[in-house]
Design goal:
Length: about 1500
């Protein structure tokens, strides 16, 4: 066939002119629009082309947008290529395409159902155009061949033709009769579109063929460049995780705090209205600030605006933009780290952080470390250097933290982007907060530099002295967010179904336009107006009412809120306002978030009665303008109305605020019975006051007496304190147990609030202070309150916190607060204050009660009681600030608290000694109980030998009860003595069975489960089965014994038994909280160390039982649905999707099992997880998907199949998701495909370049522990890229770590030397070690030898010291050396020799420690002196021993785990067993290069070179980063 002649530019001009003429003829529309449409115009039109929101499925508007936006971007890309060298005078090719597409999307309202047909068209076009996305990574197009440009022109012209034919069909109306298959009308009709689509597909395939041969090198070069610029993760994930955990620990940041910090950053963007918060992307100042290479740009960017103008949403979107820009694998940039912290608003009660700015800096540093391994390593080491100053991170100022954490001083070419939101909203009640805030602002202003860019949100008044600010960008949000307000209003009206009918369009337009202008960017104003409009519409009000609301919408927020409150006050009764105010006390001034049940309990504590209308209905109804129930069930104030609802007094508190009544009753001539009757009747009358049987409430209502809806903060804290004291003085109730934990735990915080805020007009009256003093005295004078409410008290911590105990003491030191106490009571307080440790003295009476319940009673949990006592004894004495304090008068008795101050190592014995001093135990029964409780405590503290000893002491005093025997058996089992544990448990069970414990069956069941576990430890699985069955019989409704039995069956290959039990469990209903019994078992299966093994065994058992197999899969679906409905996307959900897919893939019986499995994995990948990063299950799912497609491509071989392209595209899509060092499974499959089948090593290398650079980074740092992992990582990357010789070299460098005993004379290898004395001493040492430790591991032998040498060196030093004392005067009288001098010389020489031997042994130990374990993924056989391993050339990090590999090839290998996708069609690199030569080469860092590899995996004809030289050569060839 003759080669096609390439068209000249003039012929391209004619082709485009013909296309525009045809477009005009077919549609009657001029495609040459003026001005031409752009990419943004088309996207805007696409967003307008939506379905009505009748469904939330992605089958409608989202798919249309997804496909459409992809097509638009591809057209822009192709237009840029086509414009290179083509002088098309009438318009750019991309503009013509955009014009045509815009006209197609401009669908009249009456034809809106045609949009479904457009979706079908886009769905067909998108995959064809997606092949052009490869050009996104190209910086310039001038190297693209002319033939390729011609193909691109033809594709674009064909696209214009498709648009024309589609518009022609749309306007003809013929499509209406095809509504039943609307989506496919454009690709199936006879209008010529189908033929044009087939032509379009041919042209794209033709382009792909040309591109594959002519532009591959351009693509590869740019792929490598883009990968080079990806995030620099120099260390392996394991090493970096170790650094980060150390940093968190040293900085004192819990995982929950760090996670919450990151969630607060992403949440505003995710919760925002779709298609909003994007206008900043076109703002030139923001784009300049984000461009790190623009050195002239201002480094500080301040986003200013009033509250509720959406600053947090915009900042959250800006952070997302930065991350998508600089964390993209395709981004060509140096290392850029992005860290953000969003301060919680004042409602964030679960954040009790006293130093929020210090916490912010620490969280920012951890985020930076999470992105950069070098920074993580450096910071971890710096934190370790502060170990001698344990208070530094607690007490450091903002400047000290900023400097120490190096947030403002990145090293090298690193750039930090720091984003802070909500700084201006931090409360400034305390001077510390104000000073920290001002200090941080000063630091930010002085630290902004080219390598440190700061983005800050601020209120207008946050900067008191703007002249001191450095040059900066300032963006006023309310001048730009009007489009977002409009979309917010539009979304609200649509979701509330307000003004959505066609005839309502004028009114809807008026509301949209008016509100967007009136509220001046304030979302709260818009929402308030919309809520009022909704009420007008619901009540069928007039349009004039809506006009009034729109006119009033420009009021300030405070006015709007006050209007809402005033309107509600008119609607509610006096009782309802009082109830609402009570709720506001807890919601606003409580220290945590409360749910509906908590608040209902608070109302019951207030009135001692329960209302008839459910509180939830009130909150959703009459109180909804003030209070809102969040998605997590927490009740919060609507729209941050706290400030308006919270008031301060403006006039002095009246002395009569607290009414006082005095009455005198005189009884004359009354007998006992009549007096009793009178008093009883009176008490009933008094009680009736609480229930208002006198009708006072009705009188109040009749007179119109109402309170306002408001909360005084001081009164609120006082109310909560009163509720606490009232609860502690009463017997426990359901409500007190629900709310009591909070009340007792946060009592010191509320008391501290009163100390700090009850000032001025809000100062407490003497009676109020006296009420607090009496309540606290009642709490501390005895342990009765704690004893009565132990359920609420057992988890509090203030007994060990000096600051909180001192808050109590401050109140009790107030003479007004204690003025109503009796003389003896005040004497007791004075004595406690005079104690050398008044904190402990105040708590002593409570602790006496706790001590009694710890050692003298079984009712309380022993470990909880011990924790109270241990914390109490650790609490330090307060610092004496002056000399005027009353000193200890020495009058304390022998059990004085001050003499029992114990340090942080307080032991059980020391606590017990104090308790014995306050409670005398003389009888054998009392001593036996004490020892039993000590045993329980030791067991809980993990001191098992001491637990066994004390349980034994108890049994030696009296006949033991079942509890003592049961505790002893558990201690024995924890110590590995399973036989004795079973014997003692059998005795305990006999006593328990004979007793009358009301929970006997449950206790027996739990004990039998333990016996089953211990029988497994004794390798008696059949006996374990018997015990598990007994546990099931005693507790048939409990799923735990059934799961225990299932585990025994699965782990011991009782296949039939396991299958039968699974069948029974799957068919059992027994719903509990919406979860079946087997659903609860699934949760337990996921909650083990290796769930993949448990699920793997389960599905293997069911592989021959299709009915039960299907039942298990159905139960997994139910568990997924329940978890997603109640908890959202969790790790368990993704794990269930993963395991279900693997089960179908391996064992499914249906013909479409593979497709079902792929759907499961795709569903797993589609779930949105924390921070948008795939979790473990999603990474595994991506590996299984790519593994399947890889096997399909491998099976197709060299055949020409269109499926290959689709498979490779899907693998590429998955492999490029996430950060560069994630998803290594898909990457290795894809790289192996290019290296092994396409023979394109450069393409393979480009895919794994970041992984390769990371390996070189590990080998280049100064952390020797990283070397083993670095060599293995490098070896894997080289293997997947096809370089097997260098891969074998890398694998041979890290020494294996032996944990089992070894044969041979390895110690002799280590001790081998060329010098005679060193050889003699080494042989002697080796013989000694062989004699006493021949069965030890090699590591143990070396450590034993080192200890032996240490002893010898110690003896030599002693001899030399003694000799120096004798020969202090030097040599003999005649100057000749003495015998002692000669002996010294010999000893010194021996010492030097032993030190050389010890140094060599340390070198070996270090090599072992820095090595890496490698073993079979099926049977755990390690690669060592006796065993080889075989590393898959395609699968990431998969090895088999020889035996398992032979079984795999023969089709007989049973995969116990669900992790391994590798199969018999793959190939492997054999790593032969180690020997003496390979050991010494690895130790000496020598390596063979070149040569070839024989069938046994040994290298032949290679050259031995230093490892450093070999590594330098590899870096020059493979590395893309400068070290």
């Amino acid at each position: 066939m003759a080669k096609a002649v390439r068209p000249e530019p003039s012929s391209m001009e004619e082709m485009w002119r013909d296309a525009t003429i045809k477009f005009n003829e077919r549609t009657g529309l001029n495609v040459d629009l003026k001005p031409p449409k752009t990419l943004n115009d088309c996207i805007g039109e696409l967003e307008e082309s939506r379905y009505p929101d009748e469904s939330e499925e992605k089958s409608g508007k989202e798919k249309l947008e997804d496909y459409g936006i992809n097509i638009i971007r591809c057209l822009k890309l192709l237009g840029g290529i086509a414009a290179q060298g083509a002088e098309v005078v009438f318009g750019a090719p991309s503009s013509i395409c955009f014009n045509a597409l815009f006209l197609l999307l401009d669908i009249p309202e009456q034809l809106r159902s045609f949009r479904e047909a457009v979706e079908g068209l886009f769905e067909t076009l998108a995959p064809c155009l997606s092949v052009f996305r490869i050009y996104e990574k190209m910086d310039q197009f001038n190297e693209i061949e002319p033939e390729l440009k011609q193909a691109i022109h033809e594709v674009m012209i064909c696209f214009v033709g498709i648009c024309a034919l589609s518009i022609q069909l749309r306007d003809s109306g013929k499509w209406r009769k095809f509504k039943s298959r609307m989506k496919h009308i454009l690709i199936q009709d006879d209008s010529g579109i189908k033929a044009e689509l087939e032509k379009f597909e041919r042209l794209t395939k033709s382009h792909y063929s040309i591109q594959a041969t002519q532009t591959l090198k351009v693509q590869i070069a740019n792929d490598v460049a883009s990968l080079k610029a990806a995030d620099d993760k120099r260390n392996s994930e394991d090493s970096k995780r170790k650094y980060i955990e150390n940093i968190k620990k040293k900085l004192g940041i819990d995982d929950s705090v760090y996670k919450t910090s990151k969630e607060r950053c992403d949440k505003p963007r995710k919760d925002s209205v779709p298609n909003t918060a994007s206008w900043f992307m076109d703002h030139p100042d923001f784009l300049r600030w984000t461009e790190r290479d623009d050195k002239e740009s201002d480094k500080l960017f301040i986003l200013t605006g009033a509250p509720n103008t959406g600053k947090s949403v915009i900042l959250s979107a800006m952070v997302h933009y930065l991350r998508s820009t600089y964390e993209s694998p395709a981004r060509h940039s140096p290392r850029t780290l992005i860290a953000a912290h969003f301060f919680p608003n004042t409602m964030a009660k679960d954040d009790q952080d006293k130093r929020p700015i210090a916490t912010a800096l620490k969280c920012i540093a951890i985020q930076l470390a999470d992105q950069d391994s070098l920074y993580a390593k450096s910071l971890s080491q710096a934190c370790d250097s502060k170990s001698d100053n344990t208070n530094f991170f607690r007490d450091a100022s903002c400047q000290e933290l900023w400097d120490f954490l190096r947030i403002g001083s990145p090293r090298g070419n690193l750039t930090h982007y720091i984003v802070l939101d909500g700084l201006g909203g931090l409360p400034e009640e305390s001077s510390d907060n104000r000073e920290q805030k001002e200090q941080l602002l000063s630091i930010i202003c002085s630290s902004a530099q080219p390598s440190v860019r700061v983005l800050l949100s601020a209120r207008q008044d946050m900067f008191r002295n703007k002249e001191l600010l450095p040059s900066h960008f300032n963006l006023e949000i309310d001048q730009h967010n009007e489009p977002d307000i409009q979309k917010y209003v539009e979304n609200y009206l649509r979701s509330s179904d307000i003004f959505q009918d066609p005839e309502d369009k004028p009114l809807r337009t008026k509301v949209l336009d008016t509100l967007a202008k009136q509220v001046h960017g304030n979302f709260n104003k818009a929402k308030a107006a919309l809520e009022n409009i909704r009420e007008v519409v619901a009540s069928d009000g007039l349009e004039s009412d809506i006009d009034r609301i729109l006119d009033e919408s420009n009021m300030n927020e405070k006015q709007i809120t006050q209007t809402v409150i005033s309107q509600l006050e008119e609607k509610l009764t006096g009782d309802e306002i009082d109830e609402l105010n009570e709720l506001l006390i807890w919601v606003i001034c409580g220290k945590v978030f409360f749910d509906v049940d908590d608040l209902n309990a608070a109302l019951v504590l207030r009135s001692r009665r329960r209302g008839t209308l459910r509180l939830k209905k009130k909150l959703e109804g009459k109180y909804s303008n003030i209070l809102t129930i969040r998605r997590d069930d927490a009740v919060v104030v609507t729209d941050d109305m706290d400030d308006v609802l919270t008031t301060r007094r403006t006039k002095p508190r009246s002395v009569d605020d607290t009414p006082t009544f005095t009455a005198t009753i005189t009884i004359t001539k009354g007998d006992l019975r009549s007096v009793q009757s009178f008093l009883w009747s009176l008490s009933q009358k008094v009680d009736s006051l609480a229930h208002d049987t006198f009708g006072f409430e009705q009188i109040s209502d009749q007179k119109g007496v109402k309170n306002n809806i408001q909360v005084n903060e001081v009164d609120a804290h006082l109310t909560i304190v009163r509720r606490t004291f009232s609860m502690l003085a009463s017997e426990p109730t359901k409500e007190s147990e629900l709310l009591g934990v909070y009340l007792v735990d946060f009592l010191p915080q509320h008391l501290k609030e009163l100390l700090e805020k009850a000032t001025g007009y809000d100062e407490l009256t003497p009676p109020q202070k006296q009420e607090i003093g009496e309540g606290l005295f009642s709490l501390f004078v005895s342990g009765e309150a704690v004893e009565r409410h132990w359920h609420s008290c057992r988890n509090v911590i203030w007994f060990r916190e000096p600051d909180e105990v001192e808050t109590f003491r401050k109140w009790l030191e107030d003479p007004i607060a204690t003025s109503r106490l009796g003389r003896l009571d005040r004497e007791w307080l004075k004595k406690a204050q005079a104690n050398s440790n008044p904190n402990q003295a105040l708590l002593e009476n409570i602790m006496r009660t706790v001590a009694w319940h710890w050692l003298c009673d079984r009712e309380w949990d022993a470990v909880k009681a011990f924790q109270w006592l241990k914390g109490f004894l650790r609490i330090p004495a307060p610092r004496r600030e002056t000399q005027n304090h009353v000193e200890d008068d020495g009058s304390d008795d022998g059990n004085s608290i001050g003499s029992h101050i114990v340090d942080d190592r307080t032991s059980v014995e020391e606590v017990a000694e104090w308790c014995k001093g306050v409670h005398t135990m003389t009888s054998d029964e009392a001593k036996a109980l004490m020892n039993e409780r000590l045993g329980e405590t030791y067991l809980g503290e993990g001191e098992f030998m001491k637990a066994i000893e004390t349980y034994g002491n108890s049994m030696s005093l009296v006949n033991p009860g079942w509890k003592c025997l049961e505790g002893l058996s558990r201690a024995l089992a924890e110590n590995g003595q399973y036989g004795k544990a079973c014997e003692e448990m059998e005795k305990a069970l006999q006593l328990l069975s004979d007793g009358d414990n009301p929970e006997k069956d449950l206790l027996l069941s739990e004990s039998y489960r333990r016996l089953a576990e211990w029988q497994i430890g004794l390798k008696q699985p059949r006996r374990a089965v018997e015990y598990a069955k007994q546990a099931m019989e005693l507790a048939p409704e409990d799923h735990k014994p059934q799961y225990e039995l299932l585990k025994i069956y699965l782990e011991n290959d009782f296949t039939n038994d396991a299958a039968n039990l699974l069948d029974v469990l799957v068919k059992a209903g027994n719903q509990q909280d919406g979860v079946s019994r087997f659903g609860r078992i699934l949760d337990d299966m996921l909650d083990v160390e290796k769930p993949e093994l448990t699920f793997g065994r389960c599905f293997m058992v069911l592989s021959k039982d299709p009915d039960t197999f299907t039942g298990v899969l159905r139960q997994m679906d139910l568990a997924i649905d329940h978890a997603r409905e109640n908890y959202g996307v969790t790790n368990n959900v993704t794990m269930l999707y993963l395991y279900k897919g693997i089960a179908l893939y391996r064992y499914g019986a249906e013909e479409d099992r593979i497709q079902q499995a792929l759907r499961c994995w795709e569903q797993c990948l589609g779930l949105e997880t924390f921070n948008g990063i795939w979790n473990y299950a999603q990474i595994e799912a991506s590996t299984w998907i790519c593994g399947h497609y890889f096997d399909q491509v491998k099976a197709l071989g060299e055949s020409i199949s269109p499926d290959i392209e689709a498979y490779i595209k899907r693998m590429s899509d998955i492999a490029t998701r996430g950060p560069p060092l994630f998803n290594l499974g898909p990457k290795t499959c894809l790289a192996s495909y290019y290296a092994r089948f396409i023979k394109d090593a450069l393409k393979a290398r480009g895919i794994l370049q970041t992984y390769i650079d990371s390996a070189f980074g590990l080998l280049s740092d100064d952390i020797s522990d990283n070397d083993g992992g670095g060599y293995y990582q490098l070896g894997e990357a080289l293997l997947y890229c096809g370089d097997e010789l260098d891969a074998l070299s890398a694998f041979s460098l890290p020494l294996p770590t032996f944990t089992s005993s070894v044969k041979g004379d390895i110690i002799s290898w280590i001790l081998k030397s060329d010098t005679e004395q060193e050889r003699l001493l080494g042989d002697k040492l080796a013989a000694t070690i062989e004699e006493i430790s021949s069965r030890c591991s090699l590591k143990d032998q070396i450590e034993l030898a080192q200890n032996r040498i240490d002893g010898i060196l110690h003896d030599i030093d002693n001899k030399l010291s003694a000799s120096q004392d004798i020969n202090a005067d030097g040599d003999g009288i005649d100057g000749t050396p003495t015998t002692e001098t000669t002996t010294n010389s010999s000893e010194v020489e021996m010492k030097v020799t032993y030190e050389r031997i010890r140094s060599r042994m340390s070198q070996w130990l270090n090599a072992f420690r820095c090595g890496a374990r490698r073993g079979c993924d099926v049977c755990d056989t390690m690669w060592d002196l006796e065993h080889a391993v075989n590393h898959c050339k395609y699968c990431y990090n998969i090895d088999f021993c020889d035996g398992c590999l032979n079984k795999l090839k023969a089709g007989k290998l049973v995969m116990p785990s669900l992790e391994t996708h590798c199969n018999k069609s793959h190939d492997w690199l054999r790593l032969p067993p180690w020997d003496k030569d390979t050991y010494f080469r690895a130790l000496q860092k020598d390596v063979y290069t070149g040569g070839r590899i024989d069938d046994e995996g040994s290298r032949i004809e290679g050259e031995l070179v230093p490892a450093a030289e070999w590594l330098d050569g590899l870096k020059q060839e493979w590395a893309t980063k400068e070290e």
